[in-house]
Amino acid sequence: MAVPGNNQRESCCVRVFKWIPVLFILSIVFWSYYAYIIQLCILTIEDVPKQIIYIFVYHCIYAMFLWAYWQTVLTPSGRVPDKFRLSEVEYDRILQAENEETQRLMLEDFSRNLPNLNRTVSGSVRYCEKCRLVKPDRTHHCSVCGRCILKMDHHCPWVNNCIGFTNYKFFVLFLGYALIYCIYVALTSVQYFIKFWHGTLEGTGRFHILFLFFVALMFAISLVSLFCYHCYLVLQNRTTLEAFRAPIFQTGPDKQGFDLGKYNNFREIFGVKPKLWILPIPTSLGDGVAYPTHLQHQSHMYHSMESTQTRSD
After folding, report:
1. Is the overall model pTM greater than 0.85, yes or no?
2. In the chain, how many H helices and how many E strands?
3. 60 is catalytic
4. What are the pLDDT digits (tens) for 102-156?
5. Out of 1, 18, 40, 127, which residue is the most buried by the measure of CB atoms under 10 Å away?
């Protein structure tokens, strides 16, 4: 027999363990701040105008990078509205259904007023037994979070959060600013790395500069492919899950089912106000439940891309 106290302690340990990747990333970021600002700019660079320019540009990029990262980490992943959730009576009826066809008809009846276009492989309504709800389009159950996530892209251990409708814009900006940060640090420290290599860089801080260059270059190489891949997904209006398994509509699987054209795809994630595109604040269109689609799948759509309520209003 399980002991409640032990289960609670295990659950607490698991939650703490999940924050280790985030703490690792933050430790690297804070160390890089010390290595760049103190060891490189203040103690190594002697040209004052150069110091000022390097420090100013660095802080602008650093601030945007941290802002986007924390928005990705701290933004709650979207919860499915209650109208998709089955009541106890409805759930019991489905469990007691005589066969799959009867169960399918019950789910169809329950979801007749819901904006659902996606179906299972067998053509029935998508349903989550664990959450006891009908899944909205593009929603998937996350085994790590233990619940269904709106427009789930993937679960990212480096932010200890699910990437989905509410924070996908922040995640893409985080990747972009992280890449810019690494490239900037690598380019501005490479000449001092060369001095170290030639043995002309003095002081104990030279080892911080050495590792700073290598770490920035290593992360830049790993980030460039990931950032480019998610830029591709944004322009195609796909999630990572949809890239591997095409969403199924009543007419069958279609990877381009939510593709509205590159510009409109971009605006669905980043909003209609260009001045807000680079800021990690909520501007995505829609409610995370209903999405515009190709005409052949269309039964529910935004009245217009401009008039759709954004989460920033």
Report:
1. yes
2. 9, 8
3. no
4. 888 888 989 888 999 999 988 889 999 899 999 999 999 999 989 999 999 999 9
5. 40
